[in-house]
Design brief:
Length: 135
């Protein structure tokens, strides 16, 4: 009985996550149309910031879809490595937007360095586990 309930809840969660991914794809389509309109119709130099905002938002939505699909594919588990990589790309996007503030740029760069070191340590731990299993 408990196993049936778990499978039912898992199915319901997969359905809702799929609906969420579909809604995000539709919203991304609207974003893409707005980007094309800004580039080809308005063509002003002043709209560069607007274009950059739409593009950054588009890629954040894209990452969210990928993370949702990864969650479904990996039996409702998102690996830490994947979350760290998403964090690095989000910080890089922020770094692109806030490039005129030296203090914030330094902090964002330090955050990227810490996350990169975290990835390195995760790979070291994984390699040591692999060696230990082979013995």
């Amino acid at each position: 009985m408990e196993e049936k309930l778990m499978r039912l809840l898992s199915l319901i969660m997969n359905i809702f996550l799929s609906i969420l991914a579909l809604l995000i794809v539709i919203y991304m389509g609207f974003d893409l149309v707005n980007i094309v309109k800004l580039i080809f119709i308005h063509g002003d130099v002043g709209t560069i910031d607007s274009i950059a905002d739409y593009i950054l938002g588009f890629f954040m939505l894209f990452e969210f879809i990928i993370m949702t699909l990864q969650y479904i594919d990996d039996a409702h588990n998102v690996p830490i490595k994947y979350l760290v990589l998403i964090s690095i790309t989000a910080i890089l996007r922020q770094l692109l937007v806030v490039h005129n503030n030296g203090g914030q740029t330094l902090l964002l760069t330090i955050a990227i360095l810490i996350l990169t070191l975290t990835l390195y340590l995760l790979e070291l731990i994984k390699a040591k586990e692999k060696i230990r299993k082979n013995k």
